[in-house]
Predict the 3D structure of the following.
Amino acid sequence: MGVSIFGLAWRSLLNRKISALLTVTAIALSVALFLGVEKARNAAKSGFDNTISGTELIVGAPSGQINLVLYSVFRLGNATAEISWQAYEALDAREDVAWTIPISLGDNHRGYRVMGTNLNYFEHYKYGQRQDLAFADGREFDDLFDAVIGAEVAKSLGYELGTPIIITHGLGASGFNDHDDRPFRVVGILRPTGTPVDQTIHVSLEAITAIHVGWETGTRNPLVDTISEETIRGFDLTPRTVTAVFVGLKNRATVLRTRRAINTNKTEPLLAIIPGQALAELWQVMSTAERVLLAISAFVIAVGLVSILTSILTSLNERRREMSILRATGARPGHIFALLIAESTFLGLIGAILGALLIQLILLIAAPILTAQYGIALMGTGPGLVDLYTIGAVTLAALILGIWPAVTALRRSLADGLTVKV
């Protein structure tokens, strides 16, 4: 034979373009689904783990450690209760505590959460590999109605330094519940972090108290319009409560003892959690769903591989004359066998490679959307060993599946002459 087995197999596939294209598409989609689930799972977990670092404890009202980490770190959901300012001061005064970051949540601006905090936030809050928050422009808040916004807020809303911001009471849509009598001014824009910080508007704790003057009943008191900004600035704006507190310890080795002391506090019920343990528990809850998704994805790949078998087997009857001619032109039985194996392997290899490329394209498009909407940075989603292992496994499986039609074709070519039997 003047043409190599691989060249002949490639020409044969080109001669059956429609069938080959459908088979390759099925393999590509199944591989893309499998790799997508695996990459998204690992990247999301990595993103979650990197959202907060260098914080030994998170303290809030008792509501379960998963709920506490979700609303305090990821701004998802709401606190069922808050802790008193007196409890925060006692916590901050502990000898084993190096620093604290109180936060107050509950309001929003055009769907972005507003968080009240103090200047410790910009000094001590870290993410990723203990990376500090940094400013792309501007500075920390200084005046009562200053605001520092995350990178995604600035980008999506087109805000810059000096832009006025009207905060909405609660998490509902803007309108009747707007604090439009107390507008804020953007004085700082943080650099992107790939965490929920990017979707947060930061103001001082005193500012949170100030905009809620006249909202003590939960709704706006019409008389609040008669209170001037100068008058409010003269009030004692010390918060009565905070939503949660991030705590850094002088000695990380004391974290368990400190957590136990806080959790057994007799003055006020408190819940102190270790962020890493809370995230581990969260992923443990999600592990069943992860396994189900991976199992479904693997099953889809199996279905895609079966399509190779079906495609080649269904075409054998139409190719009996082809096989007989090949035998008549000098092809040995081993050549016929190798031809079908090569075709099956080509289909699996091309489909797997295209599937790996497809999921990279999808993740490239989806990554900024996930970061913008949920504050989850899909890190480490580029081509890696999992892609190579998957492509290799699918190609090997396709080769093995090709044995059946190869044996069938070999037997028929030996039995048939130059005349097709029907």
